[in-house]
Amino acid sequence: MEINKLKNILEAVLLAAERSLTVVQLEALFELDEERPTRDEIRKALHEMEADYETRGYELKQVASGYRLQVRQEFSTWVGRLWEEKPARYTRALLETMALIAYRQPITRGEIEEVRGVSVSSNIIKTLLERDWIKVLGHKDVPGKPTLYGTTKEFLDYFNLQKLDQLPTLAEIKDLDSIHPELELDEDNKDASTDVNPDENGPENKIDTDSSIEAVENESVENQSEETDAVTADADDTEAEAVVEEAAETGSSDEEASEDADSELGRPAFNV
Questions:
Q1: Are 26 and 69 spatial neighbours (Cβ–Cβ below 8 Å)?
Q2: Residues 151 and 242 in one domain
Q3: Which of 29, 59, 80 is the last residue of a domain?
Q4: Residue 18: which of 61, 60, 68 has the closest Cα?
């Protein structure tokens, strides 16, 4: 079959398809034709199509589940305006859980919680399962038989990956937010209500904490001041008693001793 005709057929099929197609699936489309292209010819046509689309608004992309035609990422802003609904928003807790499953699969829920230091909400696991980003791989051979989770082809397709080896290394990841610009965080998402991490406190929480610390310090200073006044008062009373005793030993009357004590301490003497 002529290469240009084959390319046009493949382009029409991929545009009409609502999913990715493998080379085997594309080859099956020509079973009833007299001129059946070989797999090598199909791969060659797909390779040329990739080059042909380099200057266009869409591209031919090979992902884990096959080939597909898709809009180039740099034009997603304008294409997205065709739909009124807002893009999906995910919490940091969900993205961290997804990252742990992707990099450490197979992994159990308990192991995820051990790494993150907080409990994993059931809604997070449910959301990932519903999106077909993760699947149950089996059960770990330990008491309780916890479920083992791993990623799916749909996960690789969503991130334009063919295999897990194409994931960025942990050293290359400076910020989880930069992995995929479309995954904006929504801290108000109810899914994160049961997944609290002390490290995620915002500036407001920090201000409240600082205010509390300052209040405690002020209260401590006031208590110390009161204790100092009490000690000073006790010392004055002790000194007064000493003066009275000294006056008594020298034969002075109680009234004179009291006057001497008041004079010594700078207090005014009152006669009744």
A1: no
A2: no
A3: 80
A4: 68
Of 144, 99, 94, 149, the C-alpha closest to 123 is: 94
Same domain, 242 and 211: yes
More confident residue, 48 or 213: 48
Tell whether 85 is covered by a domain.
no
Residue 184 near residue 87, CB atoms below 8 Å = yes
How does residue 31 score in pLDDT terms, banded at 50, 70 and 90?
confident
Domain that holds residue 45: 3-80
Res. 90 pLDDT band, cuts 50 70 90? confident
Distance (Å) of CA 240 to CA 233, 243, 246, 257:
11, 5, 10, 9
| Backbone φ, ψ for residue 54 (5° rounding) | -65, -30
* Residue at which a domain ends, from 60, 80, 100: 80
Amino acid identity at 129: L
Same domain flag for 191 and 103: yes
pLDDT, tens only, 206-247: 434 444 445 444 554 455 555 545 445 454 555 545 544 554
Which range among 58-67, 78-87, 208-217 has the greatest average pLDDT?
58-67
Residue 33 lies in a domain: yes
Structure tokens at 60: 């031919």
